[in-house]
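Shipment paperwork, digital attachment
Item: protein structure file
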Amino acid sequence: MIVRLDHHLEKAAQAIQKIQQPAYKVEAALMGFEGIPQLHETVEEIQDSQEIFMGFLEGELKGFISYKKEGCTIDIHRLVVAPFYFRQGIGRRLLTYLLEQYKGHDFIVSTGTANEPAKKLYESHGFIEQDCFEVAPGVFCSCFLKRK
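Attachment content:
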């Protein structure tokens, strides 16, 4: 079940951090870069976030997506699945849910260029790579866009 998470509550922020850190460690290994901000984010920083968090709950939090709505654009900030639940369709379900909730909007997202699973997921949902930028020497992120 996909539900809105009240990340301002400490317990919810702790649950987010609990799966976010190991998931971003996997991406950090793919990218060869430990400087991903969410990898080091505190519970308090999660609580202070201005993003909207939607979680996939099945007995426990298994994944979540966060975003900001800016006019007619949905800016996806995070799509995270607990590593134990990789390859079970949770990320796909969260992304599909968000796309259905905001039909008629544009969507933007960025991910590590070396994160092929994430790139393939976005491309399979109609996202097109628009740009690539260097976040640290030799470390790149790709920006994707999906138009209405």
